[in-house]
Amino acid sequence: xxxxxxxxxxxxxxxxxxxxxxxxxxxxxxxxxxxxxxxxxxxxxxxxxxxxxxxxxxxxxxxxxxxxxxxxxxxxxxxxxxxxxxxxxxxxxxxxxxxxxxxxxxxxxxxxxxxxxxxxxxxxxxxxxxxxxxxxxxxxxxxxxxxxxxxxxxxxxxxxxxxxxxxxxxxxxxxxxxxxxxxxxxxxxxxxxxxxxxxxxxxxxxxxxxxxxxxxxxxxxxxxxxxxxxxxxxxxxxxxxxxxxxxxxxxxxxxxxxxxxxxxxxxxxxxxxxxxxxxxxxxxxxxxxxxxxxxxxxxxxxxxxxxxxxxxxxxxxxxxxxxxxxxxxxxxxxxxxxxxxxxxxxxxxxxxxxxxxxxxxxxxxxxxxxxxxxxxxxxxxxxxxxxxxxxxxxxxxxxxxxxxxxxxxxxxxxxxxxxxxxxx
Length: 424
Ligand SMILES: [Zn+2]
What we know:
Low-confidence stretches: 1-11
Strand content: 15-25%
Bound molecules: zinc ion
CATH superfamily of the largest domain: eRF1 domain 1
CATH topology of the largest domain: Translation, Eukaryotic Peptide Chain Release Factor Subunit 1, Chain A
Order of helices and strands: HEHHEEEHEEEHEHHEHEHEEEHEHEHE
CATH architecture of the largest domain: 2-Layer Sandwich
Radius of gyration: 27 Å
Number of domains: 3
Mean pLDDT: 86
Structural class: alpha+beta
Largest sheet: 5 strands, mixed
Distance between the termini: 36 Å
């Protein structure tokens, strides 16, 4: 996660997957002697890099006052390590940064830099025997960002929802007069003016939506709600950007605007939203199956073939099952330099690293085994994909197509830009 992100770049399923694994690893870390020497640093967006540097230098000085000298030294080496790594950081980024550093079980300084998926809301510097990950762990819940729009003649409310978070972005009154005016000779004229005002209002709401949902907070899909007639009238308006129109996932009757209305809309659309991500995944798998079925030569599968295709920059989209979660590790003994390689499932990583700290080296019988290098298979595939502009999608096994990817294709498949092999 040390790559710097450009503003507004879309977060893909793989980044969330990698972050989840990164957090699982962080959770397993303990300070080398259970002293309070692991540094957790949360930097909110908008922080200036020189301010972080000077704060760290202050903390370095303060650490000399720590009573236990070895703890003080360990904190200082963590801070030095952060300071030297910060030289490669060019900006804080739109969501801030989370940094974790210190001497862990393996008796070496480990450094983790995470660019979180949501903005960090606290400023925190903390030394403990564990890393404090709660603030970023909460963020894993939020997945796809959706737009919820309520449109009525009387007003409009635009909200976005992402995981457990719901934010009202705009809440406006229309000042369009009601449809009916009591009596009067100019009833027809009044109705015409009201109609025109309503059309102008819908035009204004369309513009608002285009800006909010395409520019300010790009969304994956939109749910539209409103009183029976208004929302239909609105959706007929020509001013809605066609890209937004394509994203309308559902339309529901909702009586009010404002936050109450938004909550009602969210409640009505809940099942549809839950299905949405799975639908996307299924479509990808179906496209892959179609290529195979029609023998277009534009589909391949299996770790070896997919890696080859990635290296030739021939891949459009990589599909990886979430159950493919292998971490390949190089282990080394600090007592005698014995080394070996092993791989575990990410879910077993925590237990593995605990077990490793008690494991006797087969050469010298000391308990000084540590992980020298580790690579997550999906991370490795993602790096290959990023280098050649390919997309990588993590596919869950919560549906039949996903289970098939894992069961029948070894969990790794790809759709190609051009034909690589003949007679596949
Ligand atoms: Zn050894």
